[in-house]
Design brief:
15% helix; 6-stranded mixed β-sheet; Alpha-D-Glucose-1,6-Bisphosphate, Chain A, domain 4; alpha+beta
Amino acid sequence: AEAAAEQLRLYRRDPGGWRGCRSTGEVTVSWRPSTEFAGNLYKGEGILPASPRDVWECIKPVAGGLRTKWDQNVKDFEVIEAISDTVSVCRTTTPSACMRIISPREFVDVVVMKQCEDGTMLSAATNVEHPLCPPQPNFVRGFNYPCGCFCIPVPG
């Protein structure tokens, strides 16, 4: 979990190589080639007219959290094992897509949540295997490289 958090910090500190691919009035999505795997990294950025704490409540990865209520790509989120107050092993499921052509997915990740000195809140995750969570029937087991979210306070 700590390695995933450090990788996210490195992505945040390295502004080079990102290319815009989508933009609305509220969100900009960019990509760049990954140095870890044969594919691309993606990041979405936006400024919301809300307190960082309110935004964090909507995106933080916790069982029973708000993410499953607003994010159509997250069907369920459960904690398999709480390692500490800030680190846990979690299972996330996604619904089928494209008229059920794409099967539902499940992801098992080790997740860390942190609050930084500047008020930034961070969740970082990466794939892990856990004996209490073998692959489930009717789901394709997905694999996450280091990923996560930053909730960064901005003036005003």
